[in-house]
Design goal:
Length: 656
């Protein structure tokens, strides 16, 4: 056993994607403000300049109001500091400065926002790839998609508009407040009478809008999940004539989303109309008090006009501040929803693994292994995620598979066969006993290394929407030549099928291309696994969708390939497993029989029962075939042309 230990937990947790070196997890436990600040690392200067530009724009606006005052009080009276065209040029110049600064601020902030979202998206993708199978078992794909798209978009808006909006509003308030104080202290103070009420209303609405928005996001995730499942399972829906039911259900979720949206908008509407009223009252009061001061000769007309203009500019950001504060709440919620995923532990986190050996021989030893799936809470319940253990799926499983041996697993459906083999590449962690590979404790072997040496053809074949060639080369490290590709395809009996397509191996499969049959898909996945050249080969019911004669050919071709690698075959047909070096018969998670075909077939038990049922069907078929042959010989023109008769076993269906 190797002794060097390398930590792969914590900050060293494997990052699969290296689009950027930003570890979002490090910010997961920081305060949100600190986390957001860290998120724009590298863009902080741009963001800072954006806020300064906004300050400059605010100053330029205030300056134009002062120019207005000077223009009205002196310029129009003919005793201005400058000639009239100079006033005009001043207004234009200040307008240009305001526009240019606002434009620059928008662009720079957008850069920071897009950069931060790029980080979040690439980290999330990387992270979801590394999260344990259990996490994916317990969380709906639609919900995760929602977090990776709509929630990230909300965070983008937080940076691009909302936070910048707060900066802009804050600066405008400071600048115009000072401007008004310079023009007339008393009127300026009167003009801020409603400001505390508007701000108090904003903070009152902040939590209300947060929780409403959270509910709306959850409802949207529910709808996305339903749509996603409905579309990927469209055949099942139609086959079971469930369209009406599914449409009703989708409508229910859709209506739920509409209701949540309406409630959210109602809250906004109450907030907006209330603050609008306050702003209007403030304007009326200030305009009235200002007018009285002008009539009393306490204020010049120019100052009055400048103050009224400034008040308009001042009340707008005050009201806007309320809006952005409520918007922050939605960005916050989305950020929290994203972080709920980020905080989940990756597969390799927090453990110590050994440096793996150079080579894998392929000896697999199970000693009293037990396993139970854990039902963890979804990411919504992050803080209080409960881990409930389901009943044991495997109990006291012990066997040794020597390098190069073929181990077959047979058992009723749900007996734990797929679960057993999924423990070997550490898709799930066994909960009792011990598993070793080449005498190394499985828990000390890095998952990447294991999975690189283990090839698994899963029960439900999955192909990506790309070319057949790319699908087949998924597990190949480096370059391989076409002949190797074809050889694997020939073993899997798919080469001729692929060659018959007009585009051959470049044929697109899936949504944009041809639809392969279940058996063809299975054979592509077999070829894909063979090309990986694994030391341990696992075929989980890999030939279930293939007709019997093709299965026979594939089995014969595989035989040579299985010779120097440990192979696990899960199968329901005795024919596919009878030549195995050892057969494990599983029932309710326990090995109830263990031996070779010739030992088990005569021993009382599940294996003999299955063998007998299948043999009976075989002999019944042989009888039928024999009768049909005799009949055709006595009736030479009876029309039996031999189609379907040349391969009697091919009419044999799957049993047990
Ligand atoms: N991801 C999972 N989470 C919780 N329980 C699971 C999960 N996968 C399987 N199970 C349960 O574990 C048990 C064994 O399932 P498994 O898929 O290993 O059976 P199997 O022997 O491969 O069946 P089959 O022949 O139908 O493929 C079943 O009761 C199943 O409900
Ligand atoms: Mg299975």
């Amino acid at each position: 056993m190797s002794v060097t230990s390398v930590g792969v937990g914590g900050a060293g947790a494997q990052r699969l994607l290296r689009a950027n070196d930003f570890d979002l997890k490090q910010t997961a436990h920081s305060h949100r403000v600190v986390a957001l600040w860290r998120l724009i690392t590298g863009y902080r200067l741009a963001y800072g300049i954006a806020i300064l530009s906004l300050g400059l724009a605010a100053l330029a606006r205030a300056a134009s109001q002062f120019l207005l005052r000077d223009f009205v009080d002196h310029g129009l009276m003919g005793n201005g500091s400058w000639p009239l065209p100079a006033y005009a040029a001043g207004f234009v110049l200040l307008g240009v400065v305001t526009g240019a600064c606002s434009f620059g601020a928008g662009r720079l902030a957008a850069q920071a926002a897009e950069g931060a979202c790029f980080r979040i998206r690439s980290y999330l993708y990387d992270h979801m790839q590394a999260l344990p199978f259990l996490f994916h078992d317990n969380n709906a794909t639609g919900d995760l998609l929602q977090r990776a798209t709509s929630d990230v978009e909300a965070v983008r808006k937080l940076f691009a508009n909302t936070l910048l909006g707060i900066g802009r509003a804050g600066l405008l308030i400071v600048v115009f407040m000072n401007g008004m104080i310079l023009l007339d202290m008393r009127l300026a103070l009167w003009s801020t009478l409603t400001v505390p009420f508007i701000l108090a209303a904003s903070f009152r609405f902040f939590p209300l809008i947060s929780s409403r928005y959270d509910l709306a996001q959850q409802q949207e995730a529910r709808l996305s999940t339903r749509l996603q499942e409905n579309l990927s399972g469209i055949r099942v829906v139609r086959a079971f004539v469930r369209q009406a039911y599914e449409i009703r259900m989708t409508e229910r979720d859709n209506r739920g989303l509409k209701d949540q949206g309406l409630k959210l908008n109602n809250l906004h509407a109450v907030f907006w109309s209330g603050t609008d009223l306050l702003v209007a009252a403030q304007m009326v009061l200030s305009v009235y008090l200002g007018a009285r001061a002008v009539l009393a000769g306490d204020l010049t007309l120019g100052s009055y006009l400048a103050i009224v203009a400034m008040l308009g500019q001042f009340m707008w950001p005050v009201r806007n501040l309320g809006q952005v504060i409520t918007r922050v709440s939605t960005g916050w919620v989305s950020y929290t929803r994203i972080m709920a995923v980020v905080r989940q532990e990756r597969e390799a986190a927090g453990e110590r693994t050994s440096l793996p050996p150079q080579r894998m021989e392929g000896e697999v030893r199970f000693e009293h292994v037990g396993f139970a799936y854990q039902a963890t809470g979804g990411v919504d319940d992050l803080g209080t995620a409960t881990i409930a253990r389901s009943p044991a799926v495997l109990e006291d499983v012990s066997f040794i598979a020597r390098p190069g041996q073929v181990v077959a697993l047979l058992g009723p459906t749900g007996s734990g066969k797929s679960t057993l083999v999924s423990l070997i590449p550490r898709f799930y962690e066994f909960t009792q006993g011990c598993i070793t590979i080449d005498e190394h404790d499985l828990k000390t072997l890095p998952r990447d290394w294991l999975r690189r040496h283990i090839g698994i053809v899963q029960q439900d074949p999955f192909l990506f929407s790309t070319t057949i060639r790319r699908n087949m080369l998924m597990g190949v490290q480096g370059e391989i030549d076409d002949e190797t590709l074809y050889a694997a395809a020939r073993v899997a009996h798919i080469h001729d099928v692929v060659q018959a397509f007009p585009d051959g191996y470049e044929t697109l499969v899936g949504e944009k291309g041809v639809t392969l049959s279940g058996g063809q898909k299975q054979r592509v996945t077999i070829a894909r696994t063979l090309l990986k050249n694994p030391r341990i080969l696992i075929l989980d019911d890999a030939l279930s969708s293939v007709d019997v004669s093709t299965e026979g050919h594939i089995r014969a071709a595989l035989k040579a390939l299985m010779k120097d690698r440990t192979t696990f075959i899960i199968g329901h047909r005795i024919q596919s497993i009878m030549h195995a070096d050892q057969i494990l018969v599983l029932d309710k998670g326990r090995i109830v029989q263990h031996g070779r075909h010739h030992e088990l077939k005569d021993r009382d038990g599940l294996y003999r029962d299955v063998f007998r049922i299948q043999s009976d069907i075989e002999s019944e078929l042989q009888d039928e075939l024999w009768k049909a042959t005799v009949a055709s010989e006595s009736l030479p023109h009876a029309g039996i042309n031999g189609v379907g008769m040349c391969d009697p076993v091919s009419s044999n269906g799957r049993t047990i």
